[in-house]
Amino acid sequence: MQSQTQTFERMESNVRTYSRSFPVVFKTAKNARLVDEEGREYIDFLAGAGTLNYGHNNPHLKEAMIDYLSTDGVVHGLDMWTQAKRDYFEALEELIFKPRGLDYKVHLPGPTGTNAVEAAIRLARVAKGRHNIVSFTNGFHGVTMGALATTGNRKFREATGGVPTQAASFLPYDGYMGEHTDTLDYFEKLLNDKSGGLDIPAAVIVETVQGEGGINVAGLDWLKRLESICRAHDILLIVDDIQAGCGRTGKFFSFEHAGITPDIVTNSKSLSGFGLPFAHVLMRPELDKWKPGQYNGTFRGFNLAMVTATAALKKYWSNDSFERDVQRKARIVEERFQGIAKRLSDSGKPATERGRGLMRGIDVVDGELADKITATAFERGLIIETSGQDGEVVKCLCPLTITDEDLLEALDILDASVDAVIQGA
Amino acid sequence: MQSQTQTFERMESNVRTYSRSFPVVFKTAKNARLVDEEGREYIDFLAGAGTLNYGHNNPHLKEAMIDYLSTDGVVHGLDMWTQAKRDYFEALEELIFKPRGLDYKVHLPGPTGTNAVEAAIRLARVAKGRHNIVSFTNGFHGVTMGALATTGNRKFREATGGVPTQAASFLPYDGYMGEHTDTLDYFEKLLNDKSGGLDIPAAVIVETVQGEGGINVAGLDWLKRLESICRAHDILLIVDDIQAGCGRTGKFFSFEHAGITPDIVTNSKSLSGFGLPFAHVLMRPELDKWKPGQYNGTFRGFNLAMVTATAALKKYWSNDSFERDVQRKARIVEERFQGIAKRLSDSGKPATERGRGLMRGIDVVDGELADKITATAFERGLIIETSGQDGEVVKCLCPLTITDEDLLEALDILDASVDAVIQGA
Amino acid sequence: MQSQTQTFERMESNVRTYSRSFPVVFKTAKNARLVDEEGREYIDFLAGAGTLNYGHNNPHLKEAMIDYLSTDGVVHGLDMWTQAKRDYFEALEELIFKPRGLDYKVHLPGPTGTNAVEAAIRLARVAKGRHNIVSFTNGFHGVTMGALATTGNRKFREATGGVPTQAASFLPYDGYMGEHTDTLDYFEKLLNDKSGGLDIPAAVIVETVQGEGGINVAGLDWLKRLESICRAHDILLIVDDIQAGCGRTGKFFSFEHAGITPDIVTNSKSLSGFGLPFAHVLMRPELDKWKPGQYNGTFRGFNLAMVTATAALKKYWSNDSFERDVQRKARIVEERFQGIAKRLSDSGKPATERGRGLMRGIDVVDGELADKITATAFERGLIIETSGQDGEVVKCLCPLTITDEDLLEALDILDASVDAVIQGA
Amino acid sequence: MQSQTQTFERMESNVRTYSRSFPVVFKTAKNARLVDEEGREYIDFLAGAGTLNYGHNNPHLKEAMIDYLSTDGVVHGLDMWTQAKRDYFEALEELIFKPRGLDYKVHLPGPTGTNAVEAAIRLARVAKGRHNIVSFTNGFHGVTMGALATTGNRKFREATGGVPTQAASFLPYDGYMGEHTDTLDYFEKLLNDKSGGLDIPAAVIVETVQGEGGINVAGLDWLKRLESICRAHDILLIVDDIQAGCGRTGKFFSFEHAGITPDIVTNSKSLSGFGLPFAHVLMRPELDKWKPGQYNGTFRGFNLAMVTATAALKKYWSNDSFERDVQRKARIVEERFQGIAKRLSDSGKPATERGRGLMRGIDVVDGELADKITATAFERGLIIETSGQDGEVVKCLCPLTITDEDLLEALDILDASVDAVIQGA
């Protein structure tokens, strides 16, 4: 394999990460299966960290894309109007907004999550005339400097060359202070305290389930109360649905479970459905305080991504069968993960299961233990990653479209890997 | 047309820009021609603001992409290793680095220019342990908060909701203080002055030709001296080649004309060759101070883009015939633009021509005049934009692959549009 | 009185504050008594917000100052060496440091508290190579931009013209989250959490009793644990003893009660003993990372203030009789304040007493009620102010040297004022 | 002397500066003479870096202060009204504002220059709703974090522990780019350039003569044009007259020479006249946007300083005789400095003289040479310091009240010191 990877080792920056966990060269992929250039197959429980909800090379989406290409549809046109964009807007309105009673305008910033977050918090500041943004412990919202201010991870925060981030405040996420403390009590006290040190924020930005932070799940009542507090204090509520959105939790938007309506929503990752870079910011119409061109970027409105995004909406979101199927699979994963957590606990390694929909994790407390499990699983043909501040949570982000066969095989591999680690330890 | 655009008007954020200048709905595109849904054709002198150097739907690149898709090549894999990535690295090394005597490592950040700039300046800060970044008047390097600190445009700078950018200093670009002042004298004086207020920068970031800033061309001696000053003061030199790179100026890298070797280079826009979001940061190997994962992003290493980027390198950069052809066309544009500038000047509207390669502009001094010219040209079937602080420069960013017929037709349209404006005024 | 105050109304900025509560023109003052130009006397329970611990025009200190002036001692000499400075250093060492087992070097910054705080936090950053400073809810550490980052009061924080403060994080002070929550659990959790959003701080800055914040008293165990946490995480502990120091709590340094040893201490306010501007920063010798002249200011080392400061140390701190007398008076105030709080509570206005030494307050919950009480007291000849985020705490900061007669008279006035308010309401 | 200074060496922070140049212990001082504890006399050409314009222990001022103390006048009263404050305001209005046709309101911030600057720039931001402040190369405006943003000196700027200053931009001071370039052309071009990178500032802060920066003198036309530019662009003009004010340049305010009227003025240093900490901010009445208490500080309105300040105004500013005497002495110094510069130049060490009033310097180009001259002068009984980015300017800041005898003796010492250095070199 030396010959296969030396180009990377010579030419790729040290910053590379995932190839350290999975040091093979991949060649092809279909739905939940990746194949390396030696022909070995792997089931993919990482799926682009939540980017491939509809699987690798989804045939419906691929067909739409190739059709578009074959007729020389406009691929790149900055933010000019195209048929592809109109189709996307219309599908979004008909299939997503209307059935959910939502009314949003759409901003297409640069095609990445961090860019959507930068646009969202900047819009909030402009709309409210305040600079502060509240985010939460263990939150991840991107690494460009504006977004980084709201991202808790020290790995990134300490790599700014000493420049402190600005204009954001962290508050404890749901459950952060133990099960008997409602962390929103602290937020509300600070808001009402004229000398508590919290500048009244323009907005709160929150993930309903924290992916990178360790599959931490905000309670539905907590989310409702957060919305109420924001309304009471004239603060905008931004739900960052970049990882949890597009069906991952069993609903198109992860906040649907709580029955709340954010003022601003960010989506990316699985939005194109095909792994193409794409992102949008949704905003209540009255918040659209942008003047022409105040936020730009070359790749805003990437037409190929809008073509596949439209196809994905039509294929999976025309009725609720896809949602129900995700929830069905979620219960399978939940049950199996609970079993694993129990076996780990019984063997003296305390572990717990948590998640919402197919965004699930097993918190094994110890990052090294989690690494052993995922490394063992990789040897056995399962790509699965960890998250959490110390990488202590083994997480499932499998394609929502995974076949039951692959899902069960993957869970069997994970089961066996955990057992091997328990016995080997 | 009301019926065709009302979806956009209802659903798209006010932030939209290019659709205001070109308010039609585009459908297809090939090389230098765009077609709207009424079937009307336009020659494209904007080309994605420099993103489509190889034209719309370049058949060689499209073929490579469809081949890759048809075999279910990995489209999205975070930064995992793929054959597509290795092919790209190898083509970059063989076709670009080696012939030019360059030795760089490659960082694939998020697939946008602003993301590449954020990564580049952050790396510079980490490598040098200093916070300041020097950029230049009229420079444009993106709008996420880290990059925005180096971008001169007030439209963006005033839309942060009041948050000041940090850790960057603007200095006058070549020619900014008139032809008799070498603006680098000021830079050098500040560096040597212990109380001049300039924090010794980690890096200078510069465009060799400023695109958004108004097709301002840095002299080759000025660039050489800038490199010398950076070397003398242990400051890194970052060339932002996002718009001017990939052949736009007649060389693959725009800095080749000056014979300088930047420490760090950013590329994006035309890097994929097909309008796909893609960006990389090149760095001298000894500057690769990143630790694993210190800078991330979901869409880093977008395989489809690497497939088309590789195809573009192989098609256009295996020998110097493409470069020579670009230079040939550049001379045609230069001559015609000089003619236009002369006619404008003769009619009492002082105008000058400038540029390098096929990055050329006519400075008509007055933004309203420039708007009239481009609006008239659009009516006649030419998409052409302005740049400069007041939109006073009519600019050519046509595909480098434009046919001579289209090039001459476009120049004829521009000629006629200018004449119409002269006569109408 | 119109004629007496119209000059102020015409010429003094709207920013003025205390003259709004006490709108008379004062002329003379002695120990705890102020006299206005109509000859009316007031007992002073504000005492320069803790600046006049030894009373107005303390005769011992005044004599020292006049003696110094009469021999043409150097009044102003920047930071040059003078006999007055040496005398001060030696008194500090002999009377304060040695008996308490302390070993500090002394930095004389500009003669104000905010300046001392700016110097202290900057030194901490330089010494630790980290930018963040942790301060606490309701903390007050000054209003220049560096210090303001650690000050919780929105009144000041919102008057920066939109510029956000930087490089500081607020955490909940002792008791902030209710009596059953040890707020240091949250601090420790954040320190140990790699993605909690807390940048490891260079230092924690804390008041052992928060004066402006509402006479909030940190528990002695909480302070000890705070010191332990700082030691365990290599974080510097700064005690801001600007208001609570110089005997106010019954010890020279307020942190003596807890038996902790801060790495850095700031003092000002009563440090000169005579109301003269003066401040110093004390630091453990190994932290003295300053290079010559890295932090300066014209009035650092104000000799007249060092003359009176030396006289105050010699007069009041040569043995423990002054401390004991302060503690005796503190018990009187405590008892009377408890009585007032009880009467208020009994009348349906819940109130509590708190404090340490002669830094005591009655929290009447309601800022308007507190204002009524202090306004009534002023009519009856007592100058007493409120503090707390809403001005809801009636506070005693009387001279420590107040006579028992004046103390009891003042308490009688306050008693009567409270009763009048209770009855009038 | 070991025994005399060991206390300092043991206990004083390394940050100390002036005692390194003048390592003796001073005891008494009168007008322009300092005496050390060995009884040795020195003529003082430093005078508290411009703080002692009326000399050490000025008898008129001392008398006023002792009278005030002896009647137990209020020394410290926060910002409460006192007779001393009213007297000061009235003297300021009658003796300073009215004769000069000025109309200002007065803000008394903390009693230091940096505090006055922080208050001034914050007020400008609040009044204009913009964050940027323009200051100039080699400017010095204090070292607390807000003021530091406008101070050019790297010694301070690099001692923030890595925290970058924010919300300020440096522009070239008059003459910075050579005598043929009007640096305001650059400022004006940037203001008119929508993408030049200069955020429209709330205010410009400028010293009419830069003291710490090297006795750089702004031309009167340059100052007038600066005022015009500010007016044209709705930018506030702040003159920082902390060092150049109070008669130093031969007028009470240094800007009187140029016939300009700043919107905001800061004074400190010699404002009390006696070396007591004191500062005020003057503002045009319509700019007084402060709300009560938005900017505070314990020692604002130091009554002793107002007593001496009032005495100084009455003694020296009731008519123009003091001004004329300063101008007379200035011509003596100018002539002698020109002679020294000529002798240095003739000996192969190029030197030039410059200044306004009694704020004068000899630029000897080389910091080491300047140090030799001042060290030699100190040996011979003259305290004189350097300024400029490299300490290359030997500067005169003697008391304005210096006797002709002392002035001439000091100049003789300087003459002889320069000659000794020339010969010794």
From TrEMBL, chains A, B, C, D:
<dbReference type="InterPro" id="IPR012773">
    <property type="entry name" value="Ectoine_EctB"/>
</dbReference>
<dbReference type="InterPro" id="IPR015424">
    <property type="entry name" value="PyrdxlP-dep_Trfase"/>
</dbReference>
<dbReference type="InterPro" id="IPR015422">
    <property type="entry name" value="PyrdxlP-dep_Trfase_small"/>
</dbReference>
<dbReference type="InterPro" id="IPR005814">
    <property type="entry name" value="Aminotrans_3"/>
</dbReference>
<comment type="similarity">
    <text>Belongs to the class-III pyridoxal-phosphate-dependent aminotransferase family.</text>
</comment>
<dbReference type="InterPro" id="IPR015421">
    <property type="entry name" value="PyrdxlP-dep_Trfase_major"/>
</dbReference>
<dbReference type="GO" id="GO:0045303">
    <property type="term" value="F:diaminobutyrate-2-oxoglutarate transaminase activity"/>
</dbReference>
<dbReference type="InterPro" id="IPR049704">
    <property type="entry name" value="Aminotrans_3_PPA_site"/>
</dbReference>
<keyword id="KW-0663">Pyridoxal phosphate</keyword>
<dbReference type="InterPro" id="IPR004637">
    <property type="entry name" value="Dat"/>
</dbReference>
<keyword id="KW-0032">Aminotransferase</keyword>
<keyword id="KW-0808">Transferase</keyword>
<dbReference type="Pfam" id="PF00202">
    <property type="entry name" value="Aminotran_3"/>
</dbReference>
<protein>
    <recommendedName>
        <fullName>Diaminobutyrate--2-oxoglutarate transaminase</fullName>
        <ecNumber>2.6.1.76</ecNumber>
    </recommendedName>
</protein>
<comment type="pathway">
    <text>Amine and polyamine biosynthesis; ectoine biosynthesis; L-ectoine from L-aspartate 4-semialdehyde: step 1/3.</text>
</comment>
